[in-house]
Amino acid sequence: MKALASALFVLLLLTGGAEAQRPDRCDVPGYLLFGEHELGHVNMAVKDRQRLEIVIIGSGSSTLAGPEGKAYPRQMEAALKARLPDVTVNVTVHAAPRHTAADMVDELKKVVREQRPDLVIWQTGTVDAMRAVEPDEFGAILNRAVEKLRAAGTDVILMNMQYSPRTETMIAVGPYAENMRWVSQQRNVPLFDRLGIMRHWSDTGVFDLYSPTKAFAVAQKVHECIGRALASLIIDAAQLGPMTAKVAQ
Amino acid sequence: MNSVRQQLATAESAAVTEVRPAGAAEQKPPPRRLESVPPIPPSQRDLRLDLFRGLALWLIFLDHIPTNIVSWVTIRNYGFSDATEIFIFISGYTAAFVYGKSMRERGFLVSGARIFRRAWQIYVAHVFLFAIYLAEIAYVASSFENPLYAEEMGVVDFLKQPDVTIVQALLLKFRPVNMDVLPLYIVLLLLFPFALWLLLRRPTLAVALSVAVYAANWEFDWNLPAYPSGTWYFNPFAWQLLFVFGAWCALGGAQRLAGIMQSRITLALAIAYLVFAFLIAMTWNIPSLGPFVPDWLASLIYPIDKTNLDVLRFAHFLALSAIVVSFIPLDWPALRSPILRPAIWCGQHSLEIFCLGVFLAFAAHFAMSEISGGVPMQITVSILGVAIMIAAGGLLSWYKGIEGRNPGPRTKTPDADMAGGEV
Q1: From the list A10, A31, A171, which residue is nearest B287 (CB)?
Q2: Residue B222 sits at the chain A interface (C-beta within 8 Å)
Q3: Average pLDDT, rounded, for chain B
Q4: Which among A80, A207, B92, B234 is placed 20 to 30 Å from B174, CA to CA?
């Protein structure tokens, strides 16, 4: 009974903290967004060359049907350009629907060889979870590939899956998200916890992600928020912002 | 030795007050047919098993509702192991308890056939749940077109090939989310006659073999194939360890361990380990604590593998059970109090209640999708679900009570009843 009471108390604290936020803005609490891992190459590229080459590689959830430029990669690019006005920011997107992490590895090699990006943002996990690829295998593939990217002098950010409440009983994302967190710690690269962030938005009522709506408005708004949060993570992890960057944007 | 005798004495007194008449007929020590059989453990039912299996079933239900704030009370958030370990261990224990007696009295063939019949019942239950799952998926597929989730909706593509999907499901290769436990249970039961045969003759050898298979699995990565890709979520080669260990405990192993389990050193170690696991688990719940786990420790313990029953999980389960055994005696009066009766009812009809729980979790998710996914709804469906499970458990116990009172073939009823409803 005591344990239950204290658990409820912790819950109250957690939910109380969330309620205190204004629900009209898609803020992300710092603990969900920022970590200890740094983006050294991005820092150098910006400070020494004022140029930033970013490659986003991912599956279908890095794109959005409808008008061009509404998906998070372009939103992130816009946010970065606004916050780093003196820097030339180039973002290329290689998003292929239904690609697993293993499918992306070859493409990744090619892209890195040809484009020499400063930063690779690797969005993955969803398709592997849908196909029920062995989670260990998924983690091992990711781990090896990230190790090679780091050795080749590229910074990496891992991005996990979307929070999709309606398909939760059909896609077991948990083990894949855990593996991505593990690789992020092993290889010392930031993890953009899209799953946790979107769940936070859903829990605090910022977005109704259960909605079966066919409209694009909510999807576009979610991508815009993801793009902005991702830009904040890059600026924080590359130590490019003022120290107040630790307050979530 | 003293404690064993005490346990036996309390066991007998407990047996006298046992309310179920079907069980009362079974209190005479069964005849010993096999010369090499170890001392026969108390033959009355350990209500602690029913209690904790009932609690485990509730926790499994709560954990199966995606995005459920109430699942913060479940043990998986406070340590390495979760309710699955409890469920599989107790299932092994009760299986050995029921079929061990049957194998001593009636021999390998008869008890083996009974175990297979049980596996068949579980298979049928699994297929029934799969049918319900298909209905839910088909509904979601036809009603959900949010462009944000265009990729995720690809998961219902398998509905385009019902022939393949259904056959793969019948082969236990295609298993939807949260429907992995029963296939594991089926495989464990199919192998159980042989394990039990050995457990009755050479218990130490049987456990050693089980540990050997578990350890060899680290090296050889055995697992059963799944569809469309990958392997079983609960690897039977690893999880058999808990099942066999549970069976071994039921067949006298628990008495052999009693000395170790009751020592202060064990208790201290168990508490220390649980505290350690709790602290690590806190870093999952509160990500900002993550950096406090030193890198060497993180690379030592992660990933904590559920599929292959990570040693850390197994140890966590052992520590939990050591504490339970030392603080809750077999004759704990509360076990007969009305407060705990609902959990005991559920634990005594575990297959039915487990299946009901899986169904209720689907239904809860459906209600959350259709009405609201908010916190009040999460709390409502959780409470309602557990209440339905309790009501069903009570109803099944009542049924069993009236069945037991029927005059019938005495030698058959209790065993078949237990085998049919409680393993």
Answers
A1: A31
A2: no
A3: 85
A4: B92
Question: Helical H runs in B263-340?
Answer: 264-285, 295-301, 311-327
Tell me the ipTM for this assembly: 0.84
Residue A213 structural domain: 26-246
CATH of the domain at A186: 3.40.50.1110
pLDDT tops 90 at residue B350: yes
Residue B88 lies in a domain: yes
**What percentage of residues in chain B have a pLDDT greater than 90?**
58
Taking contacts as CB-CB distances below 8 angstroms, the residues of chain B near A246 are none
The answer to whether residue A193 scores a pLDDT higher than 80 is: yes
- How many structural domains are present in chain A? 1
In a domain, A188, yes or no: yes
Look at residue A121 and give its three-state secondary structure: strand
Lowest-pLDDT range of A230-234, B244-248, B303-307: B303-307
Distances (CA, A) of A84 to A13, A238, B128, B253: 37, 12, 58, 68
Q: Tokens 């350890």 appear where?
A: B215
Taking an 8 Å cut-off on Cβ atoms, the answer to whether A59 and B151 are in contact is: yes
Q: Is residue B288 assigned to a domain?
A: yes
Contacts A65 to B, Cβ<8 Å: 147, 150
Q: What is the mean pLDDT of residues B67-72?
A: 88
Q: In chain A, which among 158-197 make CB contacts under 8 A with chain B?
A: 162, 164-172, 175, 178-179, 182, 185-186, 193, 196
CB contact under 8 A, B148 and A209: yes
Q: Is residue A104 part of a domain?
A: yes
